[in-house]
Backbone:
């Protein structure tokens, strides 16, 4: 019985089991059908969509950054170049723990505290999808060490890059300027110019100096490459490519060696020097001392160096040659003399100099630098001995309006239009200007001090050099400029052949008189004997002193009693050879005291190097004559 | 003495030629696709070949085992597996935030893999033992035998494996005749306890489930796997991009190309037609498994064979479903195709049992 029931159960069991098995089979078919429908949806219906997704996954448009153009001096010496090197860069968004990563990295490559600081600064300034350099210019050993361990550092990449380098460093800093990493402000400007697409992939842009002014020429145009990339963004192979166009090469008018000589000639002095070829306005040397190392700025300067440059009393970042404004002092006298001659003051008109000047009906004494005066002084002598009294009188006679109108022809009070950004205009005062600026009328006393280049006068070294060049070129003015030629891949532009911007039409006998007097300045009896002692060519020049602090009536200037930063600035303007000038310059030595003593020797070195190709012999102490002890 | 021919016959006597052909086709696909997925890495292909050889040897051994061996081994294997799972919970190695591995000195083992075989074996044994007098109590005990390891594995956490083992045990219960009313009650209970279960899930597990609803929400994070998998499958189109020409694969957009996401590689390169052929191969294996199950002679072997076959189908469905974006990414390999020695071994142990069940039935009857 039991056995029968069991058998029955067994039959039913198998029946039930097979029934459930069939259900399971149906379930499996349902699963497989689901999958098949899903495939049909993904692969047949939505194929185009996913095809596009896969394509955009794999194809990336990669910009190819062009090589930045070189900057050469007039003889082809390189002033700014590129070299390739390795840099270690971190994509911060891909690195969860920056601190730990940098710590680990520092075990492989040398990472100084200043590198970290600079990186942090960059991180704060950057767009968050940037990769930022933690270390530049890795040496071969470091490259090898990192490469072997790179798998440990996702988001850290070794990149081969072109670095900008300025071989002359400090000597050309204020001239060439520097490039730096593109910041938000730069991006704004690029957007305005609609050139931002040309900067895709570029990290650097000219920040100051010629690098900034000629950014458009130097940058070149960015190429593009369609590349197949993998999930990590690494390029696997190129699909199409449009080559970048390298930046153009700038050939400057500058003489790099002369520039170096001039920079050295300053020694520890602060100041500026601009040397111009008076025949065409080519700038031969352009110095602002102290300079700085422009190479520090390229990848973002570290905070210590930045602090040092910014807080130094010597203000090394200030481009004195372009933006420094100083009273021109007695260097104005030759120009004043020309103004006098233009307005028919006779060269033979002679005054008797008692050592001071008084305005009619006024007891205020405008003192000459020389106590007791120079005795009988005509125009020639007034320049040679730099007689203040003569010019007090001349200025009063001409009046401020005529002075202003004549001197502005030499470019005083106006920008020269040099090809560098940030130029300032200096100041050539007029009655109109004083009313506008100070809401005061012009007093006759104002005119008196203007006559000797004090008072409201302000001039930049570049302006004064340009004016000197115009004088040297007999009144035919050229715009000072840095770039002689732009070399393009498509062919060089013709050399810049500057047309004269203005001809003052100075009477030949007038200019001859002033030039003769300026030549006498550098001869015994003049104020700058040091400038020409032993020179085999003729130098014409004029010294000047720009007061830093004013002096009360009856007070006597004593350099020893005044702190160094309050001492007078020394000027010297000159050109050579005097009979047919090929170089004209203006030298300013800040707090240098007397132009003849500090500024003139610098000019002499520059002349000798430019004209003779060598430096002058040191002068015996006895060569210093009494005349140059003063203004 | 046996002659050579006899020896050969003895050697293959317990192998089922149809099943062997079906799984061999899939293993061949595995080697072919692995070569592409690994970017032409012969070492990877050779490694998988070694896995296959070892697993086939194990399959041969199990296939040649008489059924009462299988029956008798059920309890010891299950107990051994449970001990290992408890050890893992107590002293296991943590990797990727989960405690799944046990360091046994010479290497690490993952006891949950063993349970894939042990659980259906144990449950089938239990039902066999109580075949004559099945009551509700027996289903309850069997369910406990299932839930203990599933809970331990879910806690590791290894959601994928615990779901698959849970499924394999459920298939045993279902085939053993669990009443529809109880199953309906279980479904209702599951729905009711869903919020509670949700709160038990780890954050990353919840994340994966949410990602399924909208993978684009986190395209570079958790949704990345799903999106790239769907792109690979979808961009394959009707004919595929051609062998070794899958851009998603070779440019490394696909994660886990040789393991969990190997289906995306296959699908990208062979397209809809390739997918249909692959499904046909799986159906071939599953169909043979169903035939063996239907013809199995004892309660124990029916339940075991049915569970093995259905679990295998589930593996394939869950993996392909997750790669093509209809199931959450739970870390289940594509059976017989994904790279991996352990999964190959457990799968072929299962097929060994199927073969043993098929070829030993006469012996049992006598």
Residues:
């Amino acid at each position: 019985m039991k056995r029968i029931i069991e058998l029955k159960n067994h039959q039913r069991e198998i029946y039930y089991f097979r029934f459930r098995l069939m259900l399971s089979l149906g379930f499996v078919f349902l699963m497989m059908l689901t999958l098949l429908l899903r495939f049909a949806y993904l692969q047949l219906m939505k194929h185009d969509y996913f095809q596009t997704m896969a394509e955009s996954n794999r194809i990336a448009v990669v910009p190819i950054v062009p090589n930045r153009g070189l900057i050469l001096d007039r003889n082809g010496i390189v002033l700014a170049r590129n070299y390739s090197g390795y840099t270690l860069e971190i994509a911060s968004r891909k690195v969860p723990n920056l601190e730990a990563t940098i710590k680990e990295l520092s075990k492989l490559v040398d990472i100084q505290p200043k590198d970290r600081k600079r990186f942090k600064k960059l991180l704060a300034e950057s767009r968050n999808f940037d990769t930022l350099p933690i270390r530049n210019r890795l040496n071969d050993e470091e490259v090898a060490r990192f490469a072997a361990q790179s798998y440990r550092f996702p988001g850290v990449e070794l990149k081969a890059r072109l670095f900008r380098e300025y071989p002359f460093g400090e000597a050309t800093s204020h001239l060439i300027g520097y490039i730096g990493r593109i910041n938000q402000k730069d991006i704004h400007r690029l957007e305005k110019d609609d050139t931002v697409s040309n900067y895709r992939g570029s990290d650097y842009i000219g920040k100051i100096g010629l690098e900034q002014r000629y950014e458009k020429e130097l940058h070149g145009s960015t190429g593009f490459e369609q590349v197949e990339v993998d999930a990590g963004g690494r390029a696997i192979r190129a699909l199409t490519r449009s080559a970048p166009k390298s930046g153009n090469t700038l050939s400057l008018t500058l003489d790099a060696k002369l520039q170096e000589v001039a920079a050295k000639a300053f020694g520890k002095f602060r100041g500026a020097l601009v040397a111009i070829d008076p025949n065409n306005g080519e700038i031969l040397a352009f110095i602002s001392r102290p300079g700085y190392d422009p190479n520090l700025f390229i990848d973002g300067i570290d905070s210590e160096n930045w602090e040092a440059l910014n807080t130094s009393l010597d203000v090394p970042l200030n481009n004195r040659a372009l933006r420094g404004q100083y009273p021109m002092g007695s260097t104005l006298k030759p120009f004043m003399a020309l103004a006098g001659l233009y307005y028919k003051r006779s060269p033979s008109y002679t005054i008797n100099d008692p050592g001071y000047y008084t305005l009619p009906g006024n007891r205020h004494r405008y003192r000459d630098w020389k106590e007791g005066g120079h005795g009988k002084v005509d125009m020639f002598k007034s320049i040679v001995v730099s007689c203040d009294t003569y010019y007090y009188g001349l200025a009063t006679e001409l009046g401020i309006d005529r002075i202003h109108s004549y001197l502005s022809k030499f470019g005083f009070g106006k920008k020269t239009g040099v090809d560098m950004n940030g130029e300032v205009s200096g100041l050539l005062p007029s009655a109109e200007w004083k009313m506008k600026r100070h809401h005061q009328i012009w007093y006759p006393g104002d005119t008196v001090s203007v006559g000797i280049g004090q008072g409201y006068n302000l001039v930049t070294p570049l302006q004064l050099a340009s004016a000197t060049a115009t004088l040297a070129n007999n009144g035919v003015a050229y715009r000072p400029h840095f770039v002689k030629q732009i070399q393009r891949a498509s062919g060089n532009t013709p050399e810049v052949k500057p047309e004269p911007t203005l001809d003052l039409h100075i009477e030949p006998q007038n200019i001859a008189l002033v030039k003769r007097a300026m030549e006498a300045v550098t001869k015994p009896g003049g104020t700058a004997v040091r400038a020409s002692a032993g020179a085999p060519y003729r130098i014409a020049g004029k010294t000047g002193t720009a007061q830093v602090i004013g002096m009360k009536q009856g007070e006597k200037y004593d350099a020893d009693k005044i702190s160094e930063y309050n001492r007078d600035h020394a000027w010297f303007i000159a050109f050579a050879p005097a009979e047919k000038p090929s170089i004209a310059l203006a030298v300013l030595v800040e707090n240098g005291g007397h132009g003849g003593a500090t500024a003139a020797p610098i000019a002499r070195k520059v002349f000798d190097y430019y004209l003779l190709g060598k430096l002058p012999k040191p002068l015996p102490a006895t060569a210093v004559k009494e005349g140059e002890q003063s203004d | 003495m046996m002659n050579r021919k006899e020896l050969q016959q003895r050697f293959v006597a317990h192998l089922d030629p149809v099943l062997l052909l079906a799984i061999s086709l899939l293993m061949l696909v595995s080697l072919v696709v692995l070569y592409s997925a690994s970017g032409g890495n012969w070492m990877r292909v050779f490694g998988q070949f070694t896995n296959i050889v070892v697993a086939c040897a194990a399959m041969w051994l199990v296939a040649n085992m008489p059924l009462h061996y299988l029956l008798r081994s059920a309890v010891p294997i299950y107990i051994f597996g449970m001990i290992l799972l408890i050890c893992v919970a107590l002293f296991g190695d943590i990797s990727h935030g989960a405690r799944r591995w046990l360091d046994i000195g010479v290497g690490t083992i993952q006891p949950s893999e063993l349970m894939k075989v042990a659980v259906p074996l144990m449950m089938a044994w239990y039902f066999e033992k109580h075949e004559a007098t099945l009551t509700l109590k027996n289903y309850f005990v069997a369910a406990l035998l299932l839930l203990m390891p599933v809970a331990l594995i879910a806690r590791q956490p290894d959601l994928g494996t615990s779901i698959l083992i849970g499924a394999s045990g459920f298939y045993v219960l279902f085939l053993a005749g669990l009443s529809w009313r109880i199953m309906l009650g279980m479904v209702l209970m599951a729905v009711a306890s869903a919020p509670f279960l949700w709160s038990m899930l780890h954050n990353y597990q919840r994340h994966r489930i949410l990602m399924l609803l909208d993978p684009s929400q986190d395209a570079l994070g958790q949704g990345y796997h799903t999106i790239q998998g769907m792109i690979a499958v979808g961009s394959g189109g009707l004919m595929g991009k051609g062998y070794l020409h899958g851009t998603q694969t070779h440019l490394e957009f696909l994660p886990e190309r040789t393991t969990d996401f190997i289906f995306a590689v296959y699908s990208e390169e062979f397209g809809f037609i390739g997918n249909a052929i692959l499904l046909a191969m799986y159906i071939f294996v599953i169909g043979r498994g169903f035939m063996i199950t239907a013809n199995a002679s004892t309660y124990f072997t029916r339940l075991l064979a049915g569970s093995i076959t259905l679990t295998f189908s589930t593996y394939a469905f869950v993996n392909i479903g997750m790669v093509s974006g209809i199931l959450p990414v739970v870390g289940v390999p594509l059976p017989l195709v994904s790279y991996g020695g352990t999964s190959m071994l457990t799968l072929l142990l299962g097929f060994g049992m199927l073969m043993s069940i098929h070829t030993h039935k006469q012996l049992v009857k006598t």
About this structure: The first strand of chain A starts at residue 59 and ends at 64. The CA atoms of residues 278 and 473 of chain A lie 6 Å apart. Chain A touches chain B at residues 6, 13, 16-18, 20-21, 24-25, 27-28, 31-32, 34-36, 38-40, 42-44, 46-47, 49-51, 53-55, 57-58, 228-232, 236 (CB under 8 Å). Chain A has a mean pLDDT of 84.
